[in-house]
Amino acid sequence: MSVSTDKQPVPGAGAETGPAATTHTVEPAYVPAEQRIPLLGLAERYALLLLTAGICLYFSVAPASSDVFASLSNVNVVLGGQTAVLMIAIAAVFPLVAGHIDFSLGATTAASMVLAAGLMSRHDVPLPVCVVACLAFGAVVGLANGVAVTAFGMNPFVTTLGVATLLGGGILWYTDGQTIFQGISPDLRIFGSSTVAGLPQVTAVVAVVALVAWYVLTHTPYGRSLYAIGSNHVAARLVGLRVGRNVLLAFVISGTIAGAAGVLQLSRTGSATSDSGTALLFPALAAVFLGATAIRPGFFNVVGTVIGALFVSFSVSGLTISGADTWVSPVFNGVALLVAVGLSTWLGARRRARG
Amino acid sequence: MTLLPDPVSATTESAPALSVVGLTKRFGATLALDDASLSVRPSTVHALLGGNGSGKSTAIKVLAGVYEADAGRVHIAGRDHDLTSFKAADARAAGLRFVHQDLGLFEGLSIAENFAFDAGYPTRSGTAIRWSALHARVREVLDDYELDVDPRTPINELRPADRTMVAIARALQDTRAGDGPADGHGLILVLDEPTASLAQHESALLLGKIRRRAELGQTVVMVSHRMTEVLSVADDFTVFRDGRTVATLVDASPTEDELVELMAGRAVDALRPVDATQATTRARLVVQGLTGGPLRGVDLDAAQGEIVGVAGLVGSGRSTLLRMLFGDRRPDAGEVTLDGRPYRPRDVADAITAGVAYVPEDRAGEAAFPDLPVTDNLSVTRLRSYWGLRGMNRRREKATGGRLIEDFRVKSAGPAALFSSMSGGNQQKVVLARWLQRDPALLLLDEPTQGVDVMSRVDIYATIREAARRGSAVLVASSDVSELLALCDRIVILREGRADEELAADGLHPDVLTSKLLRSSSAQEER
User: What ipTM was assigned to the predicted interfaces of this complex?
Assistant: First the structure.
């Protein structure tokens, strides 16, 4: 290590540096980020899936739960019971991709349930009309959210929270705090309890919805536009994407799926309570955020969301069968979410640090 | 470029305020700094220059204690420090103060509060904040720094140049704590790209103030891409290239070309205008009486293959003109024809369909999708073309992305690299490639090389000329006189809301253009 000797600066023109001047333009020190080690990238992508499989394996083998957990009937209970949560989770992905959160989805589903039950039991409306009415209702709620956010520039967080509260109040007024269970179409009950290829029929519907949502988000210009809008909405406008229209449509799609979730849920439960749907929303959001750590880490995506929902529901089922108390389920949801977010943040930081 | 003969300077030169020797820093296999040195005389503004990857930012980060050097020593105010274990706290104790490009100010809080976060709030009996004392102290500092603003003003209400000045005053505020002079004497201020986000008149204002600080005795080290500004403010220059110090100019006034040549290590012919214009006689864009915002009836035309510069002072409506032509802003009046057909875009998408492309001034805010891969940033202007029965054709998208990266000489880790992982120059190349793959009829560029290093600028100019050769009419709005002269066939000066003057760029002297720009009224009386 040389000691500083007050070296006098070179006083003179650049001509003195002539010999070195033959080097060509090189940018030697620029080391690009994102030089992923493929294996780590894969691990990050599929960690949640492997974890889900691992947990299912554990509960299938562990003595406390093995005889019940791995049975087809338990799988049916879990999948069937998660219908509404899964649907709401898929619905929530659309606005989230575009950078907005929709808190009204749980309430939309709950209100849609009450609407369907009410139409059937109080007005004898035929089932197909009820289904259409519920989808339309969800679309209208989504439209209202979307118009408020895109046309009036209202804060989506507060707006959708307001709409959720409003719907919750509406449910209470309409049901008067009572459960509607009479006059529900038997066809709907039969649909909800029948199975296809051994699995609940409603799960098949959810699978189809998930497939379509996946296709729309990853394989259409519309879905790609939403990701671009979520990344930078000003830049999106300046590359010709119709930002307002696309975001509005995301809210409408989201609301419609939530409306459909109401019908599916009613087909499972056979009755509509005065519950405001908050209990449905938060596990769904947990699944979406868990899903953002998988498959396409850092982005909300449908496949990750489905895996996230399965992870949480099978884990909770396993714990319940093993004899855990009821408080275990929300605690598990919360811990899983925090761990997942922490893990993905850590992986992201490592990836950036390598750059 | 001579050594100073007078004894005062001789004594100061014998004891530099800051001197770095033998600085070496490796990142993996890359040698970012290779025995680099730097010597800063007290009470001077010292410019540290170099292209991307020259190591200048790394050197600053070593001095700030962000990176540890592999070898090297720094000598500050008579004390010697080992740079292999030089921490941020050491840098502070040694009297180095840094103001980075991102100023680190809290936007919504007042100037006084921003000062207090650094130096602490004066308190009464341990808890209650003595606001009046804080405001009085900050008021004094602001006065010293020629900032005529109330300490209670929130940062986001300040003009851009004043924000930077507040950040500088804050960085140097602890010189006031003692009884010494309030001029930051003894501290060394390091400015990293202080003017990168400022418009030209704002940066002129800021540089004037920095210059006066130096005359009052402040030692300043400044890193900047903007050659003309560096030349206007710096006494001494150190040029880094490939991690080595290739030249040190003391008390010199080199020309821009000389500096660029030192940085690039080759003659910079590419920055000079090409003599052969590619303009054809086929009128492509004709604008008549365009009115709205600052524009009060702009008449303008551009032929196929012609590069037309749009010059004018800040507020003259350069950006507004481009935005209106891009359909982002509705004009109040005026007619535009594109290839002989009336052109009235309802929105941006409409303009794009008509074959218009626009590269905005604010790359990070208005052009970047930072967390998306380069491919997605490229394909976003033509998503529909990749869509078929089987969904988005990712393979074709990636192949096109890879080809564009090669064609536009983008240095990135490949199509899957994140946009934000690239340097400014490469980001700008991607934004250009995004549009040029559509072969636009009309290309609108707003400050196309802002925040771009000299080497990438050469590539970008070549790209723009190539676009013109292929038939685009190009409008370039720029506040950089040398850029307008290097790039354009013809320059239109916006003044009082009109295209007031038109000049052929060929043979025009930069000083002539600058003086014409500064003239507030039209130059008719000259003729």
Answer: 0.79
